[in-house]
Specification:
This protein is α/β, with parallel strands linked by helices. 41% of the residues lie in helices and 17% in strands. It contains 10 helices and 10 strands. The strands form 2 sheets. An 8-stranded parallel beta sheet has the order 5-4-3-10-9-8-7-6. It has a two-stranded antiparallel ribbon with strand order 1-2. Helix 7 links the parallel strand 8 and strand 9. Helix 4 crosses helix 5. The longest helix is centred in the C-terminal third of the chain and has 21 residues.
């Protein structure tokens, strides 16, 4: 069990709900992943028949984390978050403020400003950010206890493009809940993040666009669990030299007669 914003969960894998080939495929993927928290984009779904999709998710008995995907400014992000609170009856919001169309990199200035506004309005803000330590510190100063740094640009599948910066975030912010979000392409990427000490992983495209989304969801579920267990057990520190696994000193040897 782990605690997120005052609530306890078993799974440390959060799953996105976009781009699946069918509702049934999404349903099966959620079940196979054991995910208890799923994200949903209010703006993407409003363009279509959002109400049916939201009702479908509610029937899955999962915690919904609405997000402000595709918002490009403070006012737009805040208004979308407020709308999400009305629709889903939750103060949780994954805050996204896109600054660059090519990389979909977050705008850190808009992100911090929007986070301050939403925190003052009683939201539990999950800010989506890069691996920038200063931005992380500013967000925590604004009241955010949960941070969602990317591994790489959304949907790129590149994995952890700056692992040293991610390790620095974990080391410098021991009191923050860190959820690795975006850029994950393979289960091994999820293992790497969890072995660093990240609290959870959120992903979407790697499962939704797989040939078999439910099977890939199950693979990621096991990867996240394995990575966390490895971190808690204590990983072997790499050495620049060989060291025998069986020590010589004190080991009895049989002598020939």
């Amino acid at each position: 069990m782990w605690t997120l914003a005052g609530r306890e969960f078993k799974s440390r894998l959060l799953l996105g709900t976009a781009r699946y080939p069918s509702p049934e495929s999404l349903k099966d993927a959620i079940k196979k992943s054991n995910a208890e928290i799923v994200t949903v984009s209010l703006r993407r779904q409003v363009a279509g028949d959002g109400s049916k999709f939201w009702d479908f998710l509610r029937q899955m008995n999962v915690t919904i984390l609405p997000n402000t995907a595709h918002c490009r400014g403070v006012e737009e992000a805040v208004a979308t978050a407020q709308m999400a609170r009305e629709i889903f009856k939750t103060d949780w919001v994954k805050l996204e403020t896109i600054g660059d169309e090519y990389t979909l990199q977050p705008d850190p200035f808009a992100l911090i400003e929007a986070a301050k506004i939403l925190m003052s309005q009683g939201f539990e803000v999950f800010p989506y950010m890069t691996e920038d330590l200063i931005v992380a510190e500013r967000l925590m100063a604004a009241g955010c206890k949960i941070l969602m740094p990317w591994g790489a640009p959304i949907g790129s599948g590149q994995g952890l493009s700056n692992p040293q910066a991610l390790r620095t975030l974990r080391a410098r912010l021991p009191g923050a809940t860190l959820i690795l979000d975006a850029g994950i392409g393979t289960p091994s990427h999820a293992v790497q993040a969890m072995e660093m000490g990240f609290d959870a992983v959120l992903l979407n495209s790697a499962v939704a666009l797989a040939e078999d989304p439910p099977k890939m969801a199950e693979a990621f579920s096991k990867a996240v669990e394995a990575g966390r267990l490895g971190f808690e057990a204590g990983l072997l520190t790499p050495r620049p030299f060989a060291e025998p696994s069986t020590p010589v000193v004190g080991t009895p040897f049989w002598k020939k007669a």
